[in-house]
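User: Fold this; tokens only.

Assistant: Input:
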Amino acid sequence: MDQQTHYNHFELHPSSTIKYLFPIGIIVFLLFWTNYFNSRSILPTLNISMQESAVNIDKQILKHLHFGQKRLITSFLWIKTLIESDLEHYTNNDLNSWLYLRFDTITDLDPLFLVAYQFGGIYLSIVKDDNMGAKFFFEKGLSYYPEDFKLLFYSGTHYAFELDDLDRAIKNLEKIQYHPMAPAVLPSLVARFKAKQGDLMGSFELLKIAYYNQKEDSPIKERYRDSLYAIKAEIDLSCLNTHTLARNCEANDFEGNPYIKNKNGTYTAIKKWNYFRPHRRDTP
């Protein structure tokens, strides 16, 4: 007798097929409509500022619990800060902006982190408008690097234009006005600050040194000449027009021309000149 192979076939009853396919159909249906409604729904935007969400660990804790890994922690915090840095202004002047606290923590762990002082100070000043934070951070950096050109330049312009502290601005900028990296007009800027403070003679002498240090065909030298003319004219004409005898007053302008005496007895210069003072756009 031939050997026959028998196969067992499992056949589903129609009612059983519906029983298995129905839940799958329901799931597909729900997924479709969920995706449909999600794609057409306008959800409210949730914006949380970095000032509210940033995490700053107390620097005193890190200073005692760094486990000998100061450089590793500092590098991590620095990279994290660069990635998270925002553009939101902070004008409370209470030294509580998250970026100031973060920069302060980083430089407490690594006090000689020069780039952090240079970048952090200018970022706080220009981008964040955190004037007090920038001021204290610049001062912290200069306590370790008192001769660094960038720190002196950035802090000097910050004192002048953001804090209107010309004494500190002049003090810092005078140290670098003839530095190889200094803009050619930096002596003129310092001279303007001096003029605004009322030190016209100091302004004149400073600018005169810068004038004679320029090449003869330099366009900056021409600007310096006009500025020197204006400063001298202001000094001389103030003297001539306020002193009856005017014995100690200079009678000639910067170019050697005599001042003109008018019919009413007052003196004027031959050339037109403007007061030599700083203004907001007068930056190097």
